[in-house]
Fold this sequence. Notes:
2 domains; single chain; elongated
Amino acid sequence: MVKGESTSDDVPNVDLSLVQGDPGFHLQRRLRLIPETGMGTARRAFIFAAVSWLPLAIWALVTGRAFSHGNPDDTLVAHFGIHARCLIAIPLMVVAEGVAQKLMPPLFRYFVESGIVTPETLPGFRDRLAAMARLRDRTLPWVVILAATMAWSTVGAVVERAEEMAWLNPGDDIGSITFGGWWFILVIRPLFTALLLVWLWRACLLFVLLCKLGRMPLALVPSHPDRVGGLSFVERLAFVFSPVAFAVSAVVAASFAHEVVYHGASAVQMKTLLVASAALISLVFLIPLLPLAVPLGALKRRAIFDYGSLVAHHDRLVHQRWILHRDIGTPDILDAPELGPVADIHAIYEAVRRMRSIPFSKLSIVAIVVPAAVPMLYVAAMQLPLSAVLGKVLKALV
């Protein structure tokens, strides 16, 4: 690990959590869902899944709606979207909180440890992290999330007559809604929607923070071998959103799978929808990393000229001494050990020229695209040879 000039005492003061400290965290701690130490991630994931799914499953068993009820489409087993929400998406979005809590603080400390944030810019760095923490802890965004959740979960469920609601509400009026219908309206859909909106809010928080950091005078190195000025560690933030991308994709894919299995839809015909859904989910959770493209792009444009001038000056002196046989004295640039011979200084310029203007590599893309694509691939594999599907995916990634 490359150390900057900051002391070890500076580093602990730049910790930042995307989760710990927000209103949702404090509420769960008051309810003793989150222990005094740690996040209790596994326990909370199990509790949320059980609370959302078990009562509906017990009701379906008692009323005979679990496995057979008139037609195979009218059963709990048949409605993949409910299982995807309760048993996959909701637990995974809770797990993502644990991932964020473990992954983010070391990454922000590394801004200081790597020297990208210098002792001179450290106070400004701390101020920006503190401002993001204050924004994270505000109550107003959570009030908006709660209002949006209530609106979508109630009005949307009744008006849209969603597939998950149709079998729970045999009539057309509210009075005919069964216990299972009310449980879906009041528990399952609100819990899933709230968690999803909270994660979209956290993605916005990260986007705003990286915008602010991108406007700082970061000590980036144009010739750094990671090809992003030394910022390659930032792309690991994408792994925070990996469980969320899979969760959202699983719910969307479950809806497609239900259409394929019970309504005769063709996975081949809906391939455009599958690809577009995976692409949209991937884009949403890759966007938070994009603000760093601004300083990287500016750095590359400036470095191309700076290093181009350096190489030109070096090569011009070499040409005058060895081709034109002129006495040019002993310029320091020709004897500088950090530059070396012509081939070495050309390699430095080539490293600058090959800089990426966006902080993405295969690692960050795989961290988001693969979780978003896997559920869609499962739907495609229902009617397409799995080997052909995997072959196309591997060909695209390699």
